[in-house]
Amino acid sequence: MKSNLHSHSRYDDGSEELESYIKAAIEKGFSVYGFSGHAPVNFDTNWHMKADYLDDYLNTIDELKEKYEGTIEIYTGLEADFYPGCMDWRSKAGIDYTIGAVHFLKNEQTGSVMDLDGTKEEFITTLREGFNNDIHSLFRAYFEKLRNMLLEMPPNIIAHLDIIKKNNSGNFFFEETNPVYQDEIMKTLELIRKTDTIVEINTGGMSRGYVTEPYPSRWIWKICHDMGIHITVTSDSHHPDNIDYFFDEACAQLKEIGYKEQRILYNNVWQDVRL
Ligand SMILES: [Zn+2]
Ligand SMILES: [Zn+2]
To answer: Which of 42, 48, 117, 175 could be joined to 38 by an S-S link, Cβ 3.0–4.6 Å?
Structure first.
């Protein structure tokens, strides 16, 4: 069964209308499609949804649900950033699910926003100004923030678990065999299991040319499988052309390591369906 619960649109930093994604999804034989626009934040950015757009976003998805009922199941989500003072979107009326993300860290001293999911130059700045060029401190700060999110407001799905590898092509910043890195990931996976949060296998970094394998890396899938952690395959699409980018390959690779099912919203219930 084909599904994707991670998708952007022109309401945030994607392009095209919501309906364009649904039309593409129907054409490609999807049974389930969920939108997860970047939830509004309390500071200026150029990639989150403006708070003024939120009602229109929710209403438009409601209209699409009705229009395409019987053809494809559509769900209303938000990709919600976790940071000091953030909103808890899980209880917002009309929201079916949230994808919890840490895309940036707030500098405690200056209050400035330090990007983790930006350009390589921005990551270099974050590492220098926030962590004195100590990559281990950055690992700890990022994964600790994820764990705080899991403890304080666990989402349905945890977004791109190892997003900090985005600009790490050629191991520019670190090696994934780094024991501190692996230890932080293990601690985070323990909490993911405890909170029964779904790990997304996110192909969006590949479709946009940042990375050569999904978030998280395949060695982490194996650990997730051994720990009994549920996964869901997503494309983090920012354009209707990419809604199933690398899905066939990802599903085949998941099956190779033993996954038979993914967990998705279907018939309005989280359930495991065959990959
Ligand atoms: Zn994201
Ligand atoms: Zn996203």
So the answer is: 48
